[in-house]
Amino acid sequence: MRFIHTSDVNWGMVPDSDQAWGKDRANDIKTTFRKIIEKCRDFSVDCLFIAGNLFHRQPMNKDLQELNYLFSSIPSTHVVIISGENDRISSNSALLSFNWSANVTWILGDKPESVYFDDINTKVYGFSYHTRELKETVIDTIEPENDGHIHILLAHGGDQDHMPVDVETLAKLPFDYVALGYLHKPVEIVERRVIYSGSPEPLDLSETGPHGFYFGDINPITHKVQRLTFMDASRVSYIPLEFKVTDKTSNDVLTGRILSEIKAKGTDNIYMLRISGKRNPDVRFNLASITHEYRVVSIHDDSEPQYDFAAIYKEHPSDIIGFYIRKLLREDPDDMSYVEKKALYYGINALLKSQKGGR
């Protein structure tokens, strides 16, 4: 039995909504999910498991129609879906009355239930959220029958407010495969058996690393997962980049290094830049030309001016500059906090400039 496992698609979300590329990211979510549908067709997948938060919010009828069209394009694939906290079932939910394509099963109840597919001898268990929070584990009460079927569990959650569960409990679940949602990064809790698929697209700058879906194959006789592959599918990645500077690094040199790295890794990706090292005290890095043209969501300049405090103190042993150094500089500068260092550097810079007439 071949399957694809995904979750936390968040169809309708606009990541980085405050950025110029926000609308493009909303389209990326949809494009990547369409790619998953294509893979169902290409791999002749028997089941597509969606373990919660297919939608970012309560779906409207037009959203359901758009997704139903995609599902209807893979009629040989059983699509099984549960709701998470974002697309939870409410009393006026459009999900309750929507007429899905014949190959789609949305498990709507808030108590565990199952659906059986005779053509692949597979029984799928699951339940949907009806509230934003779920403080009960729930899944540890589900016991599949010894009926010779392949047993699959779909579940969503993993923290104290969303179906709290620990690794030991997950490892003991008596299912051939447990398709989990909620975490946005792929995690194999139990190798080839208990899996968080992660979101197909990263949804904010904390979600670095690979994003995609799992493709698996369960042996119809042994009911063991004989193959499970994570497939990277995201159109965009959030990539942290760190650049170390020296007192020889000019603004133009640093800009050139950053541009080369961004072009090498892909101009569609979104970058978080960090600058470290010791710089010339007279140099200030201005990266506006990069942030204007490329997808840079944050810049942290942790570089420190390369001052020779011993030499400066030797020149100013009894004036305000010498006093300032004695007051703030510790025996080991590495013991100083970030704020203390900034106070020392900016203060010395201002005092030295005032002695030179503000130049």
Largest sheet: 6 strands, mixed
What is the CATH topology classification name of the largest domain?
A: Purple Acid Phosphatase, chain A, domain 2
The domain count comes to 2
Please, what is the oligomeric state?
single chain
The name of the CATH architecture of the largest domain is: 4-Layer Sandwich
| Number of beta-strand segments | 16
> Could you list the spans in which at least 5 consecutive residues all have pLDDT below 50?
none
Structure in words:
- The protein folds into two domains: 2-232, Purple Acid Phosphatase, chain A, domain 2 (4-Layer Sandwich); 238-355, no CATH class.
- 26% of the residues lie in helices and 25% in strands.
- It has helices spanning 22-42, 61-72, 167-172, 251-265, 288-293, 309-315, 320-328, 338-355; strands spanning 2-6, 47-51, 78-82, 104-107, 113-117, 122-126, 150-156, 177-181, 187-190, 194-196, 212-218, 225-232, 238-245, 270-279, 296-301, 304-305.
- It has eight helices and 16 strands.
- The longest helix is centred in the first third of the chain and has 21 residues, at 22-42.
- The model has no long low-confidence stretch (mean pLDDT 92).
- The protein is elongated, with a radius of gyration of 27 Å.
- The chain is an alpha/beta fold.
- α6 packs antiparallel against α7 (320-328) and α7 packs antiparallel against α8 (338-355).
- The strands form three sheets. A six-stranded mixed β-sheet has the order 4-3-2-1-11-12.
Compact description:
With 359 residues, the protein is an alpha/beta fold. 26% of the residues lie in helices and 25% in strands. The strands form three sheets. It has a six-stranded mixed beta sheet.
